[in-house]
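Hi there, hope your week has been kind to you so far. No rush at all, and the record is pasted right below.
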Amino acid sequence: MACWDKQIHKWQLMLIIFSNHTTQNHKHVTWFYDSFVEKIAAKRNIVVISIRNISIKRPLLFFEKNNLFISIELSCFFLPQNMNNSILTLTNYFISHIAYFFIQKRIGNTPIKGVHQVGFFHPIGYYFAKYLGTKCIMQIIGTDNLTLMSTKGIKKRISKDENVFFTSNSKEIAKSFLLQRTKYKVIYRGIELNSVRNNEENIIDNIENNKIKIYYGGGFPDYKIRHQNIRHYDYKGGLSLIEVLTKFSEFEVIITGPNIEIGEKYAKENKCFNILFLGYVSHERNLQLIKEADIIVIPSYNEGISNIAMEAMLARKLVISRNVGGMSELIFDKINGLLFDTNKELFDLLKKFQTKDRNYIEQKYGTIMNNAKKHIYDHFDNNNMINSYIDLYNELF
């Protein structure tokens, strides 16, 4: 304990990250963990609080420290996104008290100057900031659209607090989630430009035929969103994509992500046999699959700005995305990618490739793919996001 106290006393920023992942690996939290935390920690002292869904695979409390930051991981139960607002509010209150009890034992009287919470559901960061007597940044992300109805009362109360500042990773997410207020800022997500470029050098193209390859990496998340009339497991549009693909045996398709057995069963029921289901894959493997594909499909019904879409555009791939959330801020239809609104429109887009081979995509969409790569280089560098948050920390804290 003495060692921890010696390390923690200088830490100034508390970063709270949420994840529903139940994998054993404690670092499998969110995209934000690796791409953001270490770079922020290099410029500002932080303690990272990871709130994760409880699992028998992992301990309830986990500690890690290195030369840059201290990480405290706490597992707890997450309530369904469609939970009654009053029950959710009460639960948030108790969860925040329990979490703070465990974490306060580690941070002691550390002078935390600010709290930054990634994701709105379970606004523990807001309560932590109250306990600590400091300001709080609430970062709204794409999946927070899931909680628009169940967190309406919480959102209204927090949005009136002068010590809370909202950020969002897209204008559309901000518009749909935030109330009438001036204290928010849109800070676009970014990606590591070097990660895709370095990956390009190490990829061995093992494709043996000239069939068009389609990749979808969203899986089948276990969400029930009644207020948006979205089917169970279809929040990311995976089931809808399979329905469309039943008409196209000419393509070779790879699907990755959570609950892959749901997709396998659905594909079998719909007699769609040209899909390879891989489940969860590492980030490196994900980049390889992007590199080997010709078309990346983002059929999600809720999205901020898709990380896979950004990586695919940087790798100079044709991205076809549903026009939801912040995707129209990333993809300009027929300029650096293709957008669709309905599953029928997705069918019509894919039909254009039905009798074509891989060379057709280069000939027909080469300029669009060049524009996509340039757009990411110019506007979605991860360092821009890092610097924007550093500036905001300096302004608020």
